[in-house]
Structure formats: C-alpha cells, structure tokens
Amino acid sequence: MHQLSRYRFKKRFVKIFPNGDIRGGMCRMIASLIDFSFIRSLVADCYTTIAPPCYDPPSLFLLDLFRHIDGYKEMSRFCQVLRDEDRGRSYRHLAGLTDGSIPCEGTFSHFRKRLGSCRYNEIFHVLVDIFHQLEMITFKVLAHDGTLYPTWARYKGCTYFCKKCPCITVYDVIGKVKNRILYRLNNMAEQNLGCEVRVYTECPSPRFPDDVKKPKIELLAFRLAFNDGEITQEQTNTAIIFGVDEQLQRQQLCIHTFRSNVTNINLTDGAMTLCCPRLPKDTDARIGAAA
C-alpha cells in the first residue's frame, strides 16, 4: 500500500532549560519519549491492501495530539500552521509527513469516519492521558525502553524554599500602602492615575547562599481607577483596610486589584500573611539545595 506519510520513532535528546521550558516544546518531548507505531496494530482491520494512497495512522493521531497540546481549538487553524513552511516544519517532521503531502481538515474527518468515532476517541484519549501523565510526573526517574530520564528536570519553583514560605507574615504594610495611595491622590497632576502599583517584601528564607541575592516577593498589585458610580464590596473593603475609603470617595476613585498573594490580614496590628507565589507544588523535590 502506497502511503502519503510514514511515521518512524526516533530517540531524540530532550533539552530542558533551567526555567523548565523544553527545547522544541512539549510536542517534541512526547514524540521523543514514546513510540506511537503501536497505533497501526490497533487500526489495521480498518484498512485493506488494495486502496488509494493514505496517511500513516500514527501520523494523523500525532498531528491531532499536537493540535490538542498546543491549544488549537479549530482544526482549520491548525492546518494553516501545518502548511506554513516554518511554523509547521516541526509538526511535519515529527509526524513523518513529506512536503508534498500535507493533510487538510477533510483528511482528519475521513480518518475519524473510517475508524469510527468510538475507536478513534478511545485511542485519542489514551494519547491525551499519556500527555497529562507526563506533565504531572513526580517520580524520581522515568524509565522508557531502558533509558532513564530524571523527572526533576521538570521541577518548577524556587529552589531555596523553606517551611516559612506557605505562611509569611509581614508587618507595617498597611501604613506603607496607605501612604503610597495618599501620595498619588495628592499629586494627581504629576502621577499617571492608571499606573500599576506593586507592593513587595523581602524573602524570609534562610536557605539562600551568600552569593545568591534574595528575591522580592510580590504581596499585591493594584491601580487607582474611576469607580463610575459602581464599587464592588471587595473594592470597598480594600479601601477600608488601607484607611483611604473617605479620600477615594471624595474623588470618585476605587482600588482595582490585579494580583494578590495575601491570605490573611490582621486588622489589630496591620500584619499580612501571604503564600509565596514561587513555592513549588511538589515540595518533595529539590534542585541545587539540600533537602
């Protein structure tokens, strides 16, 4: 049977950068770790030896998986990228396509019809599940075909976190924020009203080496905006907490909060409790620091 594509599994080196990004993206990583040729045996009974040229089944399944991974909701949009000489080159190479045979939307529709929606969805969701499992792996090593891949390479977050990071207490923040708001209100002619205001505190972790500068932790980010006669309860409470509700009301302004890592506020002493946004989800893994 003549084929318009021919998928072949090839082991490739997967480079993961210190920030957790993967060279070539998640699609390249999955295609480098898993041999999808098993799909041929699952769909073999849907094909005959005497038929017009067709695409290799693993090629079409991989392309549909790539579309799902990279967030293309519409197949038409993905096919446009697939046909692009530069942006679609990696997809075509990993799926085993040649430059002269690139599938269209109808190819995928016909492929689903040939296999039947039930079988197609079963196989496709197995592939998607593999992708999600690789994304969330927390084992020390991943073994595949006798090759070991350290999953700590996908570790994301601060390396030097400590037990204080989920519950950091900061004092004297309310007064500082109030002064910054009042300064803007008193100098509105010189200040950009919509400019974002960010409030930081120093990281309390004692684990940082002497030659590593401690990062600043963002408590919250906000801007002053005209209320247009409508103020939410959250905006009202925020203004009361910082003690500027009367000043904002007089000028018909409100506090619009963009981001906040604050989990609790003690109105008695003005202390704020926050959770560090760089705290890793998997706190059992570490890189570059002793556990």
Description:
The relative contact order is 0.11. The chain contains 10 helices and 8 strands. It has helices spanning 25-33, 39-43, 57-69, 75-83, 89-95, 105-115, 117-135, 173-186, 233-241, 245-250, and strands at 141-144, 147-150, 168-170, 197-202, 216-226, 253-260, 262-266, 271-274. By secondary structure, it is of the alpha+beta class. It has 2 domains: 25-154, no CATH class; 168-274, no CATH class. α3 (57-69) packs antiparallel against α5 (89-95) and α3 (57-69) packs across α7 (117-135).
What layout of secondary structure does this protein have?
Layout: H1 25-33, H2 39-43, H3 57-69, H4 75-83, H5 89-95, H6 105-115, H7 117-135, E1 141-144, E2 147-150, E3 168-170, H8 173-186, E4 197-202, E5 216-226, H9 233-241, H10 245-250, E6 253-260, E7 262-266, E8 271-274
Antiparallel strand pairs: 1-2, 3-8, 4-5, 5-6, 7-8
Helix pairs in contact: 3-5, 3-7
**How many helices in DSSP terms?**
10
Largest sheet: 3 strands, antiparallel
Main structural class: alpha+beta
Count of the separate structural domains:
2
> Which regions have little confidence, pLDDT < 50, spanning 5+ residues?
136-149
Percent helix among the residues?
Answer: 25-40%
